[in-house]
Amino acid sequence: MAYVAGSRSSFLSFGDRLAEIKSQFADALAARRLYNRTVSELQSCTDRELNDLGISRSMIKSIALEAAYGKAPR
Question: Rounded to 5 degrees, what are φ and ψ at 4?
Fold first, then answer.
């Protein structure tokens, strides 16, 4: 006697998968907008303002990555 031991309890319908993809896309778009806004705002600061914040211009992209995606680059 043969039987299948595994089952997919997390089966998603096509509509559910499409909604999940749409949600992931919206999240990625929001993160990218936050990254772009952070870079833009920090680049518009003067060197003195950045120095007051303890930021050098070379750190702007890594700070924006951390703000948008929650991780610092390696």
Answer: -100, 125
Helical ranges in 1-74 per DSSP H = 14-43, 47-53, 60-69
Residues 66 and 72 sit within 8 Å (Cβ to Cβ): yes
Residue 65 CB burial class (10 angstroms; 0-12, 13-18, ≥19): middle
Number of domains in the chain: 1
Q: Rounded to an integer, what distance in angstroms lies between the CA atom of residue 45 and that of residue 50?
A: 6
Domain containing 38: what range? 17-69
Separation CA 30–CA 39 (nearest Å): 14
Whether 57 shows a pLDDT value over 80: the answer reads yes
Is 34 among the domain residues? yes
- The structure's pTM equals 0.75
